[in-house]
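Input (structure):
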């Protein structure tokens, strides 16, 4: 890519040492040149310790139980992003980039990994799949989302979802992707339709605080503007949770 953009890292001013673990996972599809990945063009010295990139022939990867372009996930990608799905499906090679890291007080690990992803696009990558946020983008779309001068907003690294509740006219606002920052996802239950926008903004604020290092504890009371008594949050879930694949912080929207 001509005139590549240096990807910044940011400090996490609310960070405190913990036993939380960061998890990154990406699939890069394409036909790759046998050259050094030009990650330095994006401010990355290469993958951080704990993250590895393994090249696979696509034909072999299709046999994996967790292959992301088949099954329910594959059908979702094919419906939501048919052109990117076809580009990925037709690619002869797949680079799987993944690993775990200890919680970190800065996001250099994310900058370095994104720099490698950007470099892989420069040497033959055609699409990138991020299973943690259910995202499949072709090379151009990925560059537009993440190669932003002064850095992509934290929101671009996450997914905020709205699903219906069993109670009529109420929604469930929740996130995916906070494992990239070693933090629980957010779950706000029983949000009345009139408060959906407000709850969405609150959710975005909470994940931004977590991305900047904040922790929430089980039973902690959170102050919410306009809610005199605030809300009490509870820690739930785990890496095997089917909705989050992560722990999560949950609370009920005040009645």
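Output (sequence):
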């Amino acid at each position: 890519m001509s005139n590549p953009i240096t990807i910044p890292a940011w400090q996490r001013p609310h960070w405190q040492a913990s036993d939380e673990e960061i998890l990154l996972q990406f699939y890069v599809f394409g036909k790759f040149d046998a050259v050094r990945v030009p990650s330095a063009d994006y401010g990355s010295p290469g993958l951080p310790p704990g993250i590895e990139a393994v090249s696979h022939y696509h034909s072999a990867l299709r046999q994996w139980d967790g292959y992301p372009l088949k099954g329910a996930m594959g059908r979702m990608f094919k419906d939501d992003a048919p052109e990117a799905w076809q580009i990925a499906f037709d690619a002869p090679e797949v680079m799987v980039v993944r690993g775990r890291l200890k919680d970190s007080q800065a996001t250099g690990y994310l900058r370095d990994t994104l720099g490698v992803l950007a470099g892989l696009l420069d040497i033959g990558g055609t699409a990138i799949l991020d299973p943690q946020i259910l995202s499949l983008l072709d090379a151009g779309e990925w560059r537009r989302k993440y190669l932003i001068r002064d850095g992509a907003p934290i929101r671009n690294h996450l997914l905020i979802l709205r699903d219906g509740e069993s109670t009529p006219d109420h929604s469930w606002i929740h996130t995916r992707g906070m494992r990239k920052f070693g933090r629980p996802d957010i779950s706000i239950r029983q949000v009345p339709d009139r408060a959906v926008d407000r709850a969405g903004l609150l959710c975005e604020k909470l994940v931004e605080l977590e991305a900047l290092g904040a922790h929430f504890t089980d039973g902690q009371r959170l102050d919410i503007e306009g809610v005199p008594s605030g809300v009490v949050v509870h820690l739930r879930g785990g890496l095997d949770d089917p909705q989050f694949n992560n722990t999560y912080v949950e609370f009920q929207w005040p009645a």
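Notes: The chain is about 25% helix and 30% strand. Residues 196-211 form the longest helix (16 residues).
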